[in-house]
Design goal:
The protein has 15 helices and seven strands. The protein has helices spanning about 10-20, 25-65, 190-200, 205-215, 225-235, 240-250, 290-295, 310-315, 325-340, 340-365, 380-400, 405-415, 435-450, 455-475, 480-490, and strands spanning about 165-170, 175, 255-265, 265-275, 280-285, 305, 320-325.
Length: about 500
């Protein structure tokens, strides 16, 4: 019986031609190794692509963060990042302004002793029967209705000319001029010099606008260099009280500290603010290192220092430290925005819940009117915070090895520096946030954004001193312009400038 031959396709014959005649074990091993290498290359490419996607997603999330979830300033909200939410309340349907039944508030009447001119106004006719009222022999009842109008008088600078005639000596025949008084050696009085410094530092008006204001409003022609000279003289006048405040820092029981960037001729500087309960000290330094703290607080500061978790506050301070919970909340919110795993999200949500409970207790202890619950004593606060403190510690311990970098860093900070987050619970005068220093830096940052930094070391000292004096006057409810005027008067007469240290009761 003959075998039946089948006709095969050209493709099948070509495949048979490509295959080796004898598929040995060695050939199969080589082929498997080649396929494994190709598979590994594909896996590496896929892993690299996933990493690039994750990096791009993180960069996009970081770009969308605002001041509530990162260290970006509030001025960037709505520009570089997404708009910050301004509260959760719904918009009211009521019209703006006072509502029906709301008691009105009027400008208070100035006391009679401060009134410069009194004008009596009498009616010509009765508003009821239209009968003409007599001009003489009027019968008046009750107190008059008082209406006051406050107006500026025509402003013109008061110019005093000192004439010094040349007096001939009868003995030698030579002439002599009388010396000028010490407080009028310059071309501008103490009050005008203080006003220039006040407009520059407190009102944050650029020097060119100060020059225009003086010329237009006070009719005082002044050069740009003269405004700078007046500003520097005000700085020299308050050098002694500023040094006194610096020396008093190391004896304070509680301080808040923070720093921000600054510029001098384009070079990087750091502006430090150390805040005591009744005064603040500013310092512009070339470094952000701990040596600035040592220069201001000494080698050993025995009080409580409140700050963020920047390393210099931890390395060279040997006393109590209170870390800022506002920074912690901001870091948690930032980590929640970037979280990609359920474990990271769970950590952030648990930490935020504990944070909210902690601050509800703090508001009750502080006696805030909006706080729910009865006010707490110090002993009650300690007893109620202790369970939360233990839960924070346990939460941090569970996530020390988290795969999420942000969560791991936060957990490490809460675990390693656990006691430094709860000093405010036991110590009087200590707050859980560093808002005092943040508020002190706000005025300095606004000044920096308007003035674009300094040009010399003299300008750095002037900025630090004048910010120190004016901000301290505001904290003590003193008139900063009056203090600067008195300081310049005393400086010109070589007298002691009044101290800004708070008087002990």
């Amino acid at each position: 019986m003959s075998a039946v031959r089948t006709k095969r396709s050209p493709r099948a014959r070509s495949a048979d031609h490509d295959q080796p005649p004898h598929k040995t074990t060695a050939w199969l091993e080589v082929e498997n190794e080649r396929l494994r290498r190709r598979l590994k290359d594909r896996e590496d490419q896929l892993a690299q692509a996933k990493k690039q996607i994750a990096d791009l997603e993180r960069q996009l999330a970081l770009h969308h963060q605002n001041s509530t979830t990162s260290s970006k300033p509030p001025s960037s909200d709505g520009l570089a990042g997404r708009q910050r939410e301004r509260g959760g309340r719904k918009k009211s349907r009521r019209k703006p302004g006072g509502q029906p039944g709301h008691p009105g508030h009027c400008r208070p009447v100035v006391p009679s002793e401060r009134v410069d001119t009194v004008v009596e106004m009498f009616p010509a006719a009765c508003r009821h029967c239209q009968q003409a009222l007599p001009a003489r022999g009027r019968r008046i009842t009750g107190e008059p209705r008082r209406h006051q109008v406050t107006e500026l008088p025509p402003i013109d600078a008061h110019v005093t000319e000192y004439q010094c005639p040349a007096v001939v000596c009868p003995s030698c025949g030579k002439t002599t001029h009388a010396p000028l008084p010490e407080d009028v050696a310059g071309q501008f009085g103490a009050q005008l010099t203080a006003l220039i410094a006040y407009l520059t530092v407190v009102c944050r008006i650029p020097r060119r606008l100060v020059q225009a204001l003086l010329e237009d409003a006070l009719h005082v022609p002044i050069s740009l260099g003269s405004t700078q000279a007046a500003w520097e003289e005000a700085s020299e006048a308050v050098a002694a009280p500023c040094h006194e405040l610096e020396q008093a820092l190391r004896h304070q029981p509680v301080l808040n500290g923070d720093e921000t960037g600054h510029r001098t001729n384009g070079d990087k500087r750091w502006l430090w603010a150390i805040v005591a309960p009744m005064f603040v000290v500013y310092r512009i330094a070339t470094t952000r290192a701990a040596e600035v703290l040592v220069a201001l607080l000494g080698d050993v500061f025995a009080g409580v220092l409140c700050s963020d978790r920047w390393r210099p506050y931890q390395t060279d301070h040997h006393g109590e430290l209170q870390f800022c919970w506002a920074h912690v909340k901001r870091n948690i919110l930032g980590a929640l925005d970037l979280a990609k795993t359920p474990d990271a999200e769970r950590f952030c949500r648990d930490a935020l819940a504990l944070h909210a409970r902690l601050f509800r207790l703090w508001y009750r202890f502080r006696g805030d009117p909006a706080a729910r619950g009865a006010p707490l004593t110090r002993a009650q606060l300690i007893a109620k915070v202790l369970p939360l403190q233990k839960r924070f510690f346990a939460l941090a311990e569970r996530h020390l090895d988290s795969v999420n970098k942000d969560v791991r860093n936060l957990a490490t900070a809460l675990f390693v520096h656990h006691d430094k987050f709860f000093v405010f619970v036991h110590c009087d005068g200590v707050e859980p946030t560093n808002n005092r220093a943040e508020r002190a830096l706000r005025a300095a940052v606004q000044w920096r954004k308007i003035m674009f930094g300094n040009r010399s070391d003299t300008g750095e000292f002037a900025v630090a001193r004048l910010l120190t004096v004016t901000r301290t006057c505001q904290m003590q409810q003193l008139n900063a312009l009056a203090y600067l005027t008195a300081a310049i008067h005393a400086h010109r007469r070589r007298q002691i400038v009044a101290s800004l240290l708070p008087k002990r009761p």
